[in-house]
Amino acid sequence: MELSSYLVDYLRANQKAYDYQHQPIVNSFEIDDLALQVGKFYEKIRKVVDWKEENALRRGSITRALKRNLVGQFYGFAQTYTKEQNKQVSQVIVFELMRSGYFNNQLINTQKVDEVAAIIFKYAVILQEIHKKKSNSANRKDAKEKIKFQTWILQIASCELEACLAPNYKTQALVQLMCSAMKQRIKLLPKNFITEEQVQKYILIAVWRALFEADDYFVAYQLITAEFPQLTKNQTINENNDYEAFFKAKQQIFKELNTKVGRSFLSLANKYDAAYRLIGDINKEFNCESVADGEKAWQDEEKVEKLFNEIYDRRYKSLKKRLLRTSLWSTLSILAANAFSVAAIEGPVAALMGLDFTWFSIAMDILIPSVAMFFLVIIIRPPPAENKAVLWQEVQKVFRAQKTDDVYEIRQRGKTKNRVLQTFFYATTLIAGAVGLWAMYKAFEISGLPWTSIYLNVVYLTMVLFASLNIRHKSTELTVYEKSSFFDFILDIFSIPLARIGQWFSKKWKEYNVFSVFFSLLVDAPLSLFISFIEDWRDFLKEKKAEIR
User: Fold this and answer.
1) CA angle 44, 506, 205 (to 5 degrees)
2) How far apart, in whole angstroms, are the C-alpha atoms of residue 477 and residue 204?
3) Peptide bond into 190 cis (omega under 30)
4) What are the b/e assignments for 126-152, b being 16+ CB within 10 Å?
5) 301: enclosing H helix or E strand
6) How does pLDDT run across 248-295, given as a tens digit for each residue?
7) For residue 211, which of 242, 249, 170 has the smallest C-alpha distance?
8) Concatenated DSSP letters of 443-467
9) What's the whole-model pTM score?
10) Sign of dihedral through CA atoms 109, 114, 119, 120?
């Protein structure tokens, strides 16, 4: 059997991951076990506080480490930042990250610290330059734009440091596989309504989001490495030039991240991503030492199909358990959050306004959002029985050489759509959203909640809807063949406009997360010092213990 060129290229790219994981360990640092356990425990707490996706948690720990150790550069306190200072700061940051438990500490050595130092110095100088321009700007709008740019630079720096300390060769190889296959199969209608370069960008953005749920910062970093490689590979510092280059890159990339045509590519990627996810799992099971061994393993179609069935069944059972577990934990989480909200916020505010809570209204305040979340998650269904055979066919189309490839059509949006129908669809969405908001308001009003709590709970319920749709999307990790019922159709009409409102509030919550700021200021830095103190103390005790003979 002849393998597809996509798969052979994937195996070659994936070889880098095997070579990296099996490289000789030279001068790696040792982290005390107790310090590592405390660091891991704290990161679990941060997971709840920060409310971030799994793929952003490790990068979040890097961002916090940068903020803690580059306070002067980030907030403009320090006027100078020397390479000697940078070397010390970089080593501290590396040790803090090793204690977080997110990295393979055996593969982090003195050479990695030098690479990290070069990256940090570049971005520290740019942060200082941003602060200078922000201070010199009399225009409030310009100053606000500089603050956003500062946050963006910090996130890009975190992405580059993550790529340095934990190179993602496997995920890069899988992304490259899906991008190559999609590029070959996509047909534009009308032809060339966007350029070849734009097609590649939209495919890259869509694949990262579909396969790994990458956020805008991570996708932006991937686009920078593809379009502006000199910005990430070149560590020579030129303050003003680097600032201007990164600022222009941000402006250009921001326009490309959320376009209408880009969403068409994302819909396509979401439809077929399950096949590539399974290919990644199958190749992981093979765990071949060389490209030749990988090709030999994939040519045994009977073995590939057997592994596919095993992995699919394992993922299917795991998905059903995760959906049940998610419904229970999300319900309990919202129950606890609502109880805290009533005790710490809603109750005192109502008392201040001269309004009363009854025990019944308190119960409804806590139960309604919790029951809503449980219902919205529990009705999510795993893929139908027919999905498995369809998915196997899609997997075959990727790893076997095909005489003719499938064609994925991307149509130009806005040119051929019926304006009357579009007006009807938008009007229906607005009406459904308004009816949904009114129904939620009346439900809380009938429950006897004071008006101060009603508005807060309506907002909270839209965020619950948004979270449930996210869970629903994640449940499609195996889905290629999807069945939709009339109930799903009606539910989508009312839930989507409300979820869009919840999406906006969720983004604002992440942006202005008071609890996250509290942890960063009052817990993060002291705990980091405490963990470092524990490690030094343990080293001292080990040294003295070794002297006892």
Assistant:
1) 85
2) 19
3) yes
4) bbbbbbbbbeeeeeeeeeebbeebbeb
5) helix 301-341
6) 888 888 888 888 899 999 999 999 999 999 999 999 999 888 999 999
7) 170
8) HHHHTT--HHHHHHHHHHHHHHHHH
9) 0.82
10) positive
